[in-house]
Structures are given as C-alpha cells and as structure tokens.
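Before relying on records like the one below, remember that each one covers exactly one chain. Contacts with other chains, cofactors or solvent are not represented anywhere in the record.
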Amino acid sequence: MKEILQPSDISILRELQVSGRLSMQELAERTGLSASQCWRRVRDLEAAGVVSGYRAQVAAKAVGLNAIAYVHVALRDHQEDSISSFLRLVETEPQIVECASITGDHDFILKVYAKTPEDLEHFIMQRLLKSGLVRDTRSNFVLRQTKTRGPLPIL
C-alpha cells in the first residue's frame, strides 16, 4: 500500500464510514469504480490497517446503559510496569469504551458506560481506585450526546 491514499481510496473510506454494510457492487457504484477494482482497494486498505474493522453501532440506552462519563485518571506513578498494568486493566474492563493518554493534570481520559450513576460510582471506586494504580479521578457526566462516532474528516 502506498503511503499516500489515492483519490479512490478516500472515496471508498468516506462511503464505508457512512455505511460499512454496503455490498461491493453498491460501493463501486458510489465511488465510480468497477466492483473488482473496489474489492481490491478495500482489501488493500484492510491489509494496510487503514480499515481496522466493521461493527454495529448499538444505541446505549436501548441496552440499558443510561450513564456515560468521561473519567480523567491520574496514576500513582509513571513507572513502565504501572502504566502497562493500567492499560491491561483498561483492556479488560468492558465498561471502558475509549481510553486516551492526555496532557494536563491527569494522565488518561476514559469514556465509561454504566447502567446508572451508582453503577458508575461503584466502577470508579471498586475497579479503578482499588486497583492500586490510580491516584486520582475526576469525572464529567454526559448530560446528552449530540454526535457520536461521526466519520473521520478525511480530506
């Protein structure tokens, strides 16, 4: 795969971000490629890691997840083994759907889903703080989501 995306790659990526369930024929029609060209380009984008997967978007409230928070986490220390242990914790907790290393007073920000605010408190107290890895947390509850998982602004 070339370092720079081709114009056809950008068209394919835009369409797949809107609907990952398009058939190759539909994708080809929308991008002006033949189905075989489109299939090869998608395969190459997947192999190069540009397309990292396909998944259904599930409405959180429809499955009983009514509490969403961004939890800022400050670690107790910044030793390599502590950071690795924290990242393993993040990977094993299904309530954490996003994690990013950040600048500022805290080390990480987590996007966490729970059924209720009380469940979220329990998660923070029993899973994060009791892990022995976390010095401090600060949480921001989401009052209302107005845009989620929008397509990346591919230019």
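The CA atoms of residues 93 and 127 lie 9 Å apart.
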